[in-house]
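seq as requested:
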Amino acid sequence: MSEVSTEPIAAKSRFVQYIAFKIDPLWRRLPRNVRETGRGEFAEAIAVMEPDVSTAAYSTLGLKTNADLMLWWKSGSAEPVQEGLGALLQTGLGQYCEPTYTLFGLTRPSVYTKTRTNQEQAINEPDRLKYLVVYPFSKTIEWYLMSQEARQGLMNEHMRVGRAYLDVRQVLLYTTGLDDQEFIVAYETDSLERHQQLVIDLRSTEARRYTLRDTPIITGIYRPLERALELLG
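struct tokens:
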């Protein structure tokens, strides 16, 4: 994982958000036709957000007690995402949705590598892998008090481990000064076992000493939007 660069930003940052919803149990007690209409309104509201906001849907049902659905939004700025969410929450299904996690940030170039690694290309890939794992991340004060050279050495070890798992994609968002954490880390993978082993290996590196926080972790299964909504009832 890398951190914010002090160099000029070569390309415009993108606004990215992972937002998870808990569904009110009352939703499942509504008549079938009412729920079908509500799901349709929800899907239509997401369609209206295109092309300003792109959406990928993930079912977190049963994987987190306070999250049943997670949406991955990408946009040029925060405004269309906020406006889209406002419309979404007014739909038949949206009125029974409570946002429980809102993890957002900006894309920026890394200070540790001149080019983005294969793992960091997930933001631009047109296809989605089976699983998405997202969590907030912050470094300790001691990390930032080290010299750039010392941090670069630790990150080189970190990146060497990552290169053994090129099948696991990464998206790193910068939230310093925007939210409570400093980064949002997201991994896409077709194998939970591979992702888990990557994390285990990374936790054995020296840089792990300087991790302040890396929870809560939210895992979702990629689904077509219609199917993700059907699973809600």
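The helical segments are 32-49, 78-88, 141-145, 148-162, 192-202, 225-230.
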